[in-house]
Amino acid sequence: MSATVTRRSRPSAAVARRRLTHPFASAAVFAIAVLWTIPTFGLFLTSLRPEAQIKTTGWWTFFAEPQLTADNYVGVLFGGRDALAGYFVNSLVIVVPSVIIPIVLASLAAYAFAWMRFRGRDTLFLVVFTIQIVPVQVALIPLLQMFVGLHLAGTFWTLWIAHTIFALPLAIYILHNFIAAIPAEIIEAARIDGAHHAHIFRMIVLPLAMPAIAAFGVFQFLWVWNDLLVSLAFAGGVPAVAPLTVRLQQLSGTYGTEWQLLSSGAFVSIVVPVIVFIALQRFFVRGLLAGSVKS
Amino acid sequence: MSVPEKFGQALLALAIFGVVLLVVLHIAGRTSTRAPRLSIALFLGPALALLGIGLAYPAIRTIVASFFDASGRNFVGPANYLTLVEDPTMQRVVLNTLLWIVVCPVVSTAIGLLYAVMADRVRWEVLAKTLIFLPMAISFVGAAIIWKFVYEYRADQPGIQQIGILNQLLVWLGGQPQQFLTVEPRNTFALMVVMIWIEAGFAMTVLSAAIKGVPRELLESALIDGAGPVQQFLQITVPMIRSALVLVLTAITIAVLKVFDVVLTMTGGQFATSVIANEYYAQTFRFFNSGLGAALATVLFAFIVPIVIYNVLQFRKARIS
Amino acid sequence: MVADGIKPWCAGISSGTATGWPLTDWLEDIIMRQQGVDFYDQWVAHDVPFNDPKVADSLDELGAILKNPEYVNGGIGDVSSIASTTFQDAGLPVASGQCGMYHIGDFYGSIFPQGTTIAEDGDVFAFALPVWEAGDSMTTEVGGEFATAFSDRPEVVAFQTYLTSPEAANAQAASTTTSRVSPNSGVDASLYPSPVSKLSAETLTDPSAVVRYDGSDLMPAAVGSGSFWTQITNWITGQSTRDTLDAVESSWPAN
Hints:
The complex is a heterotrimer of chains A (295), B (321) and C (255).
Chain A lengths: L12 H8 L2 H25 L3 H6 L14 H8 L5 H32 L5 H10 L5 H14 L6 H24 L4 H9 L4 H29 L3 H7 L8 H8 L7 H22 L15
Helix pairs in contact in A: 2-13, 4-13, 5-8, 5-10, 7-11, 8-10, 8-11, 10-13, 12-13
Chain B lengths: L2 H29 L4 H30 L13 H8 L1 H32 L5 H13 L2 H12 L13 H8 L13 H27 L3 H9 L4 H12 L1 H16 L3 H6 L9 H11 L3 H13 L1 H17 L1
Helix pairs in contact in B: 1-2, 2-14, 3-4, 3-14, 4-8, 4-11, 5-8, 8-11, 9-10, 11-15, 13-14
Chain C lengths: L6 E4 L10 H15 L1 H8 L8 H14 L14 H4 L2 H4 L1 H4 L3 E4 L36 E4 L11 H10 L2 H8 L21 H11 L4 E4 L1 H4 L2 H16 L4 H10 L5
Parallel strand pairs in C: 1-2, 3-4
Helix pairs in contact in C: 1-2, 1-3, 11-12
């Protein structure tokens, strides 16, 4: 990502016209957007249909014979012994530290790899990059053994630590890509002024890197919010700590038969990530310059 | 634990972290000139320590385990690797994985890139981008059900209705319903479509940010020179977002190598759709053959090597230019 | 039933990573009855090879039903739909009258939609799979739970013992979300909410009935939760009996 810290020029008339009148682009975008959304729309309709109909007819028949019911949503929100709200809280409690901690640690490491000089720096960076390939499942048992040994099993700490570990390699890679692209003159100027690394990091790099941090923050939020595997492995049997995803999976019943509840559950669960995305989208949909400091 | 207690724990964790962080930055600041190495250690230490314990150590343990048998107790040398080479099921698993990494990253990135460029010029840009991003926000369980309603098969007989939209379209067009998930090799492609559907949103998000960073002046001067939109795209936009493209292709390739939920939930790995990450899970946790599972994981680790080489080359190229 | 225009059987074996298990149960049921429980025991213990000719005979018997498009797949479609229909969905056409019978465990009653009456004169009912020849003793295949203790502290042992008592069994018998049947002769049979559970209980507590554990549960994991499931799924989608059984036999772990 090239972070050119230049002033945005006002769009010329020609470009402005192009923005509004590009029929081919408009049509293509519309077509792709519709295609991409149809499957999800199908599930949304499904979540509002009665169970018997879901299992025997296609969701498009809804238009011929509309029949709506809130049963699936009621079942998800209030069904089962515990209210869903408790699991919502757990998800929030798990997600927030699991986003903040890896981002901070990764920014520090990314800065070090980008702007600190030491022997073996590039090799070490490659090692960190390489370790991305290790799938979560490989680490589950060793980590669980460690957590049990540290008497942390069944607490939120296991999830925070696990999510942080799994997020670090990609986070360091993405943030390094961005932080390394900051113009050297800015860093040099600060050094000449006598600033040391910690100062440069806090005062210059962090603000400039905000858009990339926000973008990665959104991804990390999504991945942790929607995670099932790590939560099952470390918090599966502990309702006090288990997040929404685990609960929704349980709701599908002993034999997985109540999966119509999963359709409404998926939408109940998606509310928060969509809000987060919309709130932060200006950082990347609108461009890296949106939140940055103009030089 | 009550709700306030839970939030309390989260705040406590963040507070502890914040304090440690401030202390670290403070010490780094103080000792920066006298002991620059300390700064480096403080900046890198926490991340490296976590990675070492959480990923590196298990990875090494796994590589070692690949030379032992199913119980992990008897050394068998390269026997597990020989199985991977000779057993037709395992060959298929590796082949499928290769197919996935050849198709998915390129298609996802291409769609993401084209969409990012085109949506840039549309008035309803934010909505357009949000819709493509939406599949990333849906949990995997949700996505599996969504696609169930796309691929589901019902025979075309009286009294039976289609509940999967693809087969419904086929029937309306006069064709026969098809099994998308139980017939190979189309089932692997059917699964790849799901992955592309999700990853295109990631590609689009990162690339659209990069595209916005291309200076307007450059684009305009190209137009003034008479370049059409396609030339403008190929000769100015693409080279300027090169590092973002490399990042996106790399990140998606790695995600595809690790893909396991898609296959697990939609076909269980049956009907010749299994890939390495899925087979690792099956061998290790369901069949209790930790040796063979570890060999599969090690082969997966090896796949990163070409990706590393690619990234290093790109990095060197960027440095030179 | 075929003459009446109803397909006698519906079947569905899709179950995520466990796809295929209902067919393994069916095959085990047939082997137990057709070849006798002694052979069944030998087969499960691998004293005879998995692909013994008797096993092939029984699998072909199953094929005569399940691979016959006149007999399957009631209410769902054709033979190919067996592999792609989940076991939960496959039995539903029995309640809607489009399919004659569904071979499944006694827990299935709770899967029918709310309002389905399960009784001899109701919407659906169940009966035990019959014996092979008149005069054979009733054979049943069961799946069971093991209460495993990881320590021998007194309270753990006490709880483990409690779980085997009639009191514990009675408490579980009343469950309406699934069928929990106990062979404990001290259980009060009137507590079972479903007539199907009562039927199961009668068989389990009958001293002359012959009961065996599910074979695939007893076999090594690589077979019982692995190749047996995957190969028999391949079988229903077209693989030959011989190839199927040979493949499972060759996957049996060496130790």
